[in-house]
């Protein structure tokens, strides 16, 4: 998915000023979510993720600083600026101490307002940011927005999540959005290289330093100079090598195996793991000091079962990829899509893509049926849910998708589902879905 155009959440109980600021920001190309109270703003944040919040200081329900504190509790990386008609120094100090990124005095000067927003909103984001990450999930979109903010920094990022959730895909997206995007992105899986060779692969070696070292080898850190190193499954790195990696991160230089000299390196380190690193720190299997070096910012990818609304999108995306690579064009029957949407996916997106590739290769006709999908799923797709549970879960996800597509508009959602409005309401009540939660979600 591409990121939506930059949106500003505007909060002010003065309707005239709210309108003026909305028009001013829209004229500058920003999308504006205009709200007249702090409580309304908090409700909107359940559905939308703006790139910045501008909040009035004095409002009757929640004042600007109270709203700021609540926003930080939910979305700590979301920048909030405070607007005030008084401009008192004590108010500005209180706002700054509470975490406001700026304090603007009304009437707000246009140039200062735009300058404030430009400092805190990435207006020159790469057009293909996170293009390979297909999602409509609110959870994933929030993760991508956090990732986009941290991408432009030099902070180390630890990406956690089960195998197959797309940790390397996200790491590549971080690199592509960073100031290092024109330099190399070098990835290594710490479990894929024998422990005795991992140091050489990372830091290089001199010719003759060990049996089989027939030539000098620069190592991946030097190969990535100026760019990004991605250390996948960092939690499985041998203890002895953890100390050497920590030294490289601290000193920004490597010492090849068999060499007495050190060589400066300029890299950003991203890492990933499927395991619980805190537990490994607690039992002594992972160095605490290295953990804190790597875990400056953490991005947690959810398993596919927690973003089932993405399965139809992922299926279409993978079919397009396979077709572009020379496979015949295929499509799934509605019953086959039902099976994919309701199946357990312990292998997450990687497993889903594998099943899609299998069914495309084995399908005897253009349309892939449910029987072939069940065959390729094997035991993984059997006995994991009762039929009624699988059907209800699919129905709930389907209704949620209709609401997302319609922006919470019941009449439009009912038309998309080819049901009358009364029946559609009954279905929403049965599956406990609130249309208000999806209002304007399609405008993001």
Automatic annotation (TrEMBL):
Any one GO molecular function term: DNA binding
Pfam annotation, one family: AAA_lid_14
Residues bearing PTM 4-aspartylphosphate: 56
Superkingdom of the source species: Bacteria
Domain Response regulatory: 7-121
Entry-linked InterPro entries: AAA+_ATPase, AAA_lid_NorR, CheY-like_superfamily, Homeodomain-like_sf, P-loop_NTPase, Sig_transdc_resp-reg_receiver, Sigma_54_int, Sigma_54_int_dom_ATP-bd_2
Domain Sigma-54 factor interaction: 133-361
Gene Ontology BP terms: phosphorelay signal transduction system; regulation of DNA-templated transcription
Keyword terms, alphabetized: ATP-binding, DNA-binding, Nucleotide-binding, Phosphoprotein, Transcription, Transcription regulation, Two-component regulatory system
Protein known as: Sigma 54-interacting transcriptional regulator
Native species: Solimonas marina
């Amino acid at each position: 998915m591409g990121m939506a155009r930059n949106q500003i959440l505007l909060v002010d109980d003065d309707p005239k000023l709210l309108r003026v600021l909305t028009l001013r920001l829209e004229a500058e190309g920003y999308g504006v979510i205009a709200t007249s109270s702090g409580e309304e703003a908090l409700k909107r944040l359940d559905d939308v993720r703006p790139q910045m919040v501008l909040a009035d200081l004095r409002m009757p329900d929640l004042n600007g600083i109270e709203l700021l504190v609540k926003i930080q509790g939910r979305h700590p990386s979301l920048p909030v600026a405070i607007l005030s008609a008084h401009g008192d120094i004590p108010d500005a100090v209180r706002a700054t101490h509470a975490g406001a990124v700026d304090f603007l005095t009304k009437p707000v000067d246009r140039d200062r307002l735009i300058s404030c927003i430009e400092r805190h909103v990435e207006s020159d984001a790469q057009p293909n940011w996170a293009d390979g990450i297909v999602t409509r999930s609110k959870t994933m979109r929030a993760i991508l927005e956090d990732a986009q903010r941290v991408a432009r920094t030099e902070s180390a990022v630890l990406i956690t999540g089960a195998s197959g959730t797309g940790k390397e895909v996200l790491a590549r997206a971080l690199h592509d959005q960073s100031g290092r995007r024109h330099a190399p992105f070098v990835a290594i899986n710490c479990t894929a290289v024998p422990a005795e060779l991992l140091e050489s692969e990372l830091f290089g070696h001199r010719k003759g330093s060990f049996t089989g070292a027939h030539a000098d080898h620069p190592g991946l850190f030097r190969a990535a100079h100026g760019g990004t190193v991605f250390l996948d499954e960092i939690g499985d790195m041998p203890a002895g090598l953890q100390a050497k990696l920590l030294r490289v991160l601290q000193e920004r230089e490597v010492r090849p195996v068999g060499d007495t000299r050190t060589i400066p390196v300029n890299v950003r380190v991203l890492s990933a793991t499927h395991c619980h690193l805190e537990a490994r720190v607690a039992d002594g299997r992972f160095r605490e000091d290295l953990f804190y070096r790597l875990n400056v910012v953490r991005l947690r990818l959810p398993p596919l079962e927690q973003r089932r609304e993405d399965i139809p999108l992922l299926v279409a995306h993978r079919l397009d990829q396979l077709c572009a690579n020379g496979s015949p064009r295929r499509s799934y029957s509605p019953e086959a899509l039902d099976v994919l949407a309701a199946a357990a996916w312990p292998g997450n997106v990687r497993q889903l893509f594998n099943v899609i590739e299998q069914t495309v290769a084995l399908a005897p006709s253009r349309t892939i049926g449910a029987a072939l999908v069940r065959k390729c799923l094997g035991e993984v797709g059997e006995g994991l849910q009762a039929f009624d549970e699988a059907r209800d879960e699919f129905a709930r996800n389907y209704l949620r998708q209709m609401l997302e597509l319609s922006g919470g508009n019941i009449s439009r959602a009912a038309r998309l589902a080819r049901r009358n409005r009364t029946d559609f309401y009954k279905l929403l009540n049965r599956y406990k879905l609130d249309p208000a939660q999806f209002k304007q979600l399609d405008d993001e």
